[in-house]
Amino acid sequence: MSRLHVGLAACGLAVLGVLAFAVAATATAQDVVKSPTMDTIKKRGELVCGTDTGIPGYSYQDSKGEWLGLDVDLCRGIADALFGSPAKVKFVGTTSKVRFSVLQAGEIDLLVRNSELTFVRNTQLGLDEPAINFYAAQTFMVRKSLNVAHAKDLNGATICLLSGSTLETNIADFNRANNVKINTLLFDRPEEAFAAADAGRCDGYTDDGGSVAAARSTMKKPGDWMFVPETIGGLQPIGPYVRQGDVAWSRLVKWVHYAMLEGELLGVTKANVDQVKASTKDPETRRFLGLEGDFGKLLGVDNDWAYRIIKDIGNYGEAYDATFGEKGLGLPRGMNNLFSNGGLHVTISWH
Amino acid sequence: MAVALLLGWIATTSSRRHQSFGFGFLAEDTNFDIPFRLIPWAVGDTYARALLVCLLNTLLVSAMSIVAATLLGLLIGIMRLSTNWLVRNIALGFIELVRNTPQLVQIIFWYVAVLQTLPGPGQSIPLGGGALLNIRGIYLPSFIANDLANRVWPLAFVLLLAIPIVWRVQLRGFPVRMKSLLLLLPAMPLFAAGIDHTDWPVLHGFNITGGIQVVPELVAVWAGLSIYAAAFIAEIVRAAILSVHKGQREAALSLGLRPWQVLSKIILPQALRVMVPPTTSQYLNIIKGSSLGAAVAYPELVAIFAGTVLLQTARETETLAILMVVFLSINLIVSALMNWYNRHVTLLGG
Hints:
The structure holds two protein chains of two kinds. By secondary structure, chain A is of the alpha/beta class. Chain A has helices at about 1-30, 35-45, 70-85, 100-105, 120-125, 165-180, 190-200, 210-220, 245-265, 275-280, 285-290, 295-300, 305-310, 315-325, and strands at about 45-50, 60, 65-70, 90-95, 110-115, 125-130, 135-145, 160, 185, 205-210, 225, 230-245. Chain B is built from eleven helices and ten strands. A four-stranded antiparallel β-sheet of chain B has the order 1-2-3-10. A two-stranded antiparallel ribbon of chain B has the order 4-7. Chain B has a two-stranded antiparallel ribbon with strand order 5-6. In chain B, strand 8 (about 200-205) and strand 9 form a beta hairpin. Chain B is globular, with a radius of gyration of 25 Å. Classes of the chains: A alpha/beta, B alpha+beta. The interface of A and B includes residues 97, 126 and 163 of A.
């Protein structure tokens, strides 16, 4: 008898212990969502997002002053998750020189400015790189009449580019590795660089693939220009930056990006999201749209956040098509496809 | 006190930015090219050498602009006081147009609207003597030195330098003047002896190769800086000439001097004293304005140091501090020289 009692008591204690642990774990999960950055944003009533001053594809303003672009869509997605409205964002155009200083100084909440993710920026500058929203590689754009088939054929040519980036280093490395001499002409602003390329001061223009597509759209005769198929300098993963030290904030940025990818993987689009939400029986889709689970609370937002992003902005594929793709600059999706279509964008499961 | 505060502030901000303040990076190797330079440069040289290369580019365009702005300003200033209605009003129109539009816009205008209308390398315009002109610049034939050049070229250079000195020497009571140009006679064969062959600019692949290339970026910045400053200098010249008492002019004319002699011997030497101090500040403006070269891809200090170097080293405070110290030093030296010259002309004037 006494043994049974002891056994029961032990079992009871164990159950209590597990319960206590579970309660503690839940409490911890909610504590982690304490984020000074998110508190500041909520208090202010809008997100302050640092973007480019204007580059087609990534972030630019239309004739009505409305911000558009793939980077802009990520900012809008974050605002939508936090406030339930993609309009509660203030966009701050930053130049390539000041972008990281502005972020470090706290003038913007995050930087989504077609910035390559690098080792030094993560370590020396003390910034977090929560996601990769665009894959690019340094691409050359030259006049078709020059008959350039490979990057090496550019030996002796002069290329216009913007100063203050990894582009110069890549060309210097390429020259040394291949014993060629591609000359560079460094501009401070894209306007003069485009004009110089268009006038023939340079034989071509170089930047990451997305920016070169944007540059081509500004040429007098875009059809006269071609992209050299070979890229240099390896893959350039491009993505958002946040200050280190606010894990919950960094996590929200990361998951807004992954929500847009997940939406595409699950086949949820701006057009069908309401219908899918009403009828779906797929557990992953139900968790994604907030019908099951507490995925919003774990991020510090409400449970409809991912549904709203798809409803207001669309999934990643839709955002790409509108900016870089068919409805935008006409840049083939290539590496920016989902892994399931042979691209590099990988999703993370919703469980 | 202020300096201590500034240093303290830099120390706190740099620690907030995960960085220590220091200039050690100047000894590190670079990994970028500088498209236009006066001294040899290769990818992999140190940041300190990049600083020197860019400093020379800044000094080159500043010196060229100071000379051109002075000559052009003097000419326009004198034209402004001409008795001829057309000449006077052309000068007035020039001054008002140039003085009242932004300098950056003017530089971009020269670069984009003027120089970029030139034909491509394939359709270069021959300028005679083997020189070519196209959208990528002016290409001049250059002389490649032979083994003798090390010895004979310095001699030729010394002879050239001697000309203005010999010009002023008095031989048996007579000034040498024009006869000093006879020094050119030995200088030219000495120079020719050092030439191995001439390097002619020719079209090769994408670009013209061979010879010396004067890039359009340099020309655009040069034109932009000197024309802008010339408009201000012209007004200084006009004011200075008007400040000379009209009795001086009348007296000179009544002595039978020709108008040109009145100007060059009587008016300008007296006006010079008034001109020098305000012109000094125009020179300082030219030097500072050279930083606008960054807009048209001229690789001067600001373009490379506040651009490429700043981004590649992520050392904002240090690179900007270097730039400020360098510009401050150049300008203090130039104003010291001009002050010395000012005292010189003041003393001569009595």
